[in-house]
Amino acid sequence: IDGIPEGGCIVIKWRGKPVFIKKRTEEELNDINAVDWKSLRDPQTDKARRIKEEVLVVLGVCTHLGCVPISNAGDFKGGWFCPCHGSHYDASARIRKGPAPENLEIPPYSFLEGDSKLLIG
Ligand code: FES
């Protein structure tokens, strides 16, 4: 994951599903931490959704009807937008607007080799 630029997001495939790996910027982190998480549709802190603050790992499957959202798009900086029916996720991949009922799912993962590599699963 060393090659992912700050603010960038790559997509890999795991068990036939896309996985987004995103390096978040300080500005994106400030935005998501400024939100009252208890007011969200699927209330979760960002801390509960990642191991390292700057790296977010989520399944790229919209929780509405399963489409693949677009990275770095939508109404929330550094988030995702699913154009199928207009779901907007923030940079913590929490649902913020639109019909999706839940946040994007977090797969099991761990860091390897001094945090330069990720093991999904
Ligand atoms: Fe994503 Fe409907 S599948 S908004």
How would you characterize the overall build of this protein?
The structure is a single chain. The longest helix is centred in the N-terminal third of the chain and has 8 residues. This protein has a four-stranded antiparallel beta sheet with strand order 4-5-6-7, with no helix packed on it. The radius of gyration is 13 Å and the shape is globular. By secondary structure, it is mainly beta. It has one helix and nine strands; from the N terminus they run ββαβββββββ. The site of FE2/S2 (inorganic) cluster has 11 residues, from loops.
Characteristics:
121 residues, mainly beta, four-stranded antiparallel β-sheet, globular, binds FE2/S2 (inorganic) cluster
Summarize the structure.
This protein has 121 residues and is mainly beta.
Radius of gyration: 13 Å
Instruction: State the major sheet.
Output: 4 strands, antiparallel
Arrangement of strands in the largest sheet? 4-5-6-7
Which small-molecule ligands are present, each listed once? FE2/S2 (inorganic) cluster
Structural class: mainly beta
Residues in helices, as a percent range: under 10%
- Low-confidence spans: none
* Beta content: 25-35%
Q: Give the overall average pLDDT.
A: 97
Contiguous helical run count: 1
Task: Provide the fold topology.
Layout: E1 9-14, E2 17-23, H1 26-33, E3 55-59, E4 70-71, E5 80-82, E6 87-89, E7 95-97, E8 109-112, E9 117-120
Antiparallel strand pairs: 1-2, 2-3, 4-5, 5-6, 6-7, 8-9
The structure holds FE2/S2 (inorganic) cluster (FES).
The site of FE2/S2 (inorganic) cluster has 11 residues, from loops.
